Amino acid sequence: MAQPADAARTVIMTVDDDPGVSRAVARDLRRRYGASYRIVRAESGESALEALRELKLRGDLVAVILADYRMPRMNGIEFLERAMDVHPAARRVLLTAYADTGAAIDAINVVDLDHYLLKPWDPPEEKLYPVVDDLLEAWRHSDHRPVPSTKVVGHRWSARSSDVREFLARNQVPYRWYSCDEPEGRRLLAAADEDGMRLPLVVTPDGTPLVDPDPADLAAHVGLATTPAADFYDLVVIGGGPAGLGAAVYGASEGLRTVLVERSATGGQAGQSSRIENYLGFPDGVSGAQLTERARRQATRFGAEILTAREVTGLDVGGAARVVRFSDGSQVAAHSVILATGVSYRRLAAPGCDELGGCGVYYGSSLTEAPACQDQDVYIVGGANSAGQAAMYLSRFAKQVTLLVRGPDLSASMSYYLIEQIGRVPNIAVRCGTVVEEAHGDGHLERLTLRDTDSGRTDVVDAQWLFVFIGAAPLTDWLDGTVLRDGRGFILAGPDLTADGRPPAGWELDRPPYHLETNVPGVFVAGDARAESAKRVASAVGEGAMAVMLVHRYLEQS
Ligand SMILES: Cc1cc2nc3c(=O)[nH]c(=O)nc-3n(C[C@H](O)[C@H](O)[C@H](O)COP(=O)(O)OP(=O)(O)OC[C@H]3O[C@@H](n4cnc5c(N)ncnc54)[C@H](O)[C@@H]3O)c2cc1C
Question: Which Pfam family, any one of them, does this sequence belong to (predicted)?
Fold first, then answer.
């Protein structure tokens, strides 16, 4: 007999309140179908519904349901009607006594019954199996592929739903998205006993429903590590962008017990780049997500531990130990630390933008939202390479992409090759000397007021999507009192600390800080977070590797 795509997860269910009959039906079913299907048996409509909901959340399929007609509290027809709400594709069979055939015939219309079987069904070879064989055959020919991956049910235009999708996508966790308005979304909500008021609902592959989970909870449930396995390491790397991943790969591959802590998703800014064209060795470009996912696997293969959804909020120095504190109060210690916290997007200050964040206004998350922009008008704010790359990428989906640039032209801020590429794409328009004055919308972005910086004239355009790339700033306030930074928050290291010919205040060693070393011995910085850094993937990776080399030197001498 041909088997369905994922037979082990496909169920044939039987419900009968008479335990003897229930067992007998299950036995007969198991004898013929047990090798290919899971036979699930219940003794009441209520418990059968409960089992159906669990199967739904786990993403298991139900091919056929056989229900007895005469059951107390909920008869077979009532049960099948409710079962249809959860598993509409399952084929439905009513088991009836001869006296109930009238009810069974009526049920053909009520619950769209596929068949009714008269009890007793002996011998099954003649009465039961031919019917079930036919139903399974019909079921197999319809498309009911199982969804064993994580499922997210939410509102398309909700900031929280968008955050959760972004988190999963950036952490390379495969998921299937369902709008709460579509039938399957409603069925999943019902199976989780939710009325849709609290969204998003995340259903993990093992069927656990999580309502509006925080990142750490979500991470833990989808198999991402969130707590360190040890108390003490040779090296803690803070930040999982190219610099941090570079440091983790080199640290772990060179024998350092290494843990990397990332507050959101590994990849950092690079993970959001649709196409990196200037990274050595990739003449045709590479997507940032692909590059950083490989780096993550490489770091893990060398034995680095990677913690996700853990934000570092403090750094203490206790003798030789460097103690890293997390936002929940827990901590981990190490001989050395590499700060690779990069930079975060600047927010657009125009009124309305904060309220509509995640609901039409996005910061750098063009990749996840792009398919939703299909055939619509998209606006992008920014004149640097990140905005240009986003324009190129979104132009593949959107009807029209308009790049809003504050300056008079792109040449001062964008690479020449990208300006050339943009010029060749017919559905990208560039509006220089233009800023966003206000964002309008009720629950989702609907319009933008744009202002011409020369004339001061404003105009209002219809817009559902606004992607903002207006530069970034390091979020390093948590290092106050420990690590020295410049006026904009970028971390000072090496020669920048000794510019006046003297070591930094409090420096007690008889050598100056190493090249990437901060004013705290054993604490290094790599990548965009460093003052005067190059702001490039290659240099971030290079600095990560170099910082590890300096960690070795520090450890040898301490
Ligand atoms: C859209 C876009 C396109 C780009 N395209 C290119 C390109 O084509 N070529 C190129 O060379 N460069 C490009 N860049 C720049 C490049 O991505 C960055 O220079 C590079 O990612 C910097 O790496 P990083 O590791 O220093 O910092 P980031 O990539 O910023 O990573 C820092 C990481 O640290 C984490 N973090 C921050 N604070 C904490 C904390 N307290 N606790 C835990 N974790 C924390 C963040 O969540 C983040 O994941 C692009 C940038 C963007 C945004």
Answer: Pyr_redox_2
